[in-house]
Structure formats: structure tokens, C-alpha cells
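Quick log. Single chain, no ligands specified.
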Amino acid sequence: MTPPIVVHPPTAGGGRRVTAHAEQLGIAFRPEDVGEFLRTAGLSEDEIQLDDPNLIEWRGGGPDIWN
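-> predicted structure:
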């Protein structure tokens, strides 16, 4: 099963598109942006684990890759 959150590969500008169930949440430029998008989408601080493969699929590199 695909995780509900996808962080897409970095663009030439270094941002990464973030989607939840194919709905665009925004463009992240650092891991903290991903966390903020998830809080805005209704997840609690306890639910947000950026290294949880059941929650987030990182495409084109993990949370340490931004360009």
C-alpha cells in the first residue's frame, strides 16, 4: 500500500512537492516545511514521523536531499 503522503523529487530550485492522497499540500524546501504541511492538513505532532515509511514516501531521496 502506498503511504498517504508523498514527498516528490527535488526540482531544479530545490523545492519538493508534497501531496496527500494526490492533493497538493505545497512545496517544501526543508523537512520542517513537510511537518508544517502535515500539521495544517490535520495531523497531530505525535502522528508526524518524517522517517515513517507507512506515512511518507520520499521519492528522489530522503529528508536530507533538497537539490
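Strands lie at 5-7, 16-20, 23-28, 56-58.
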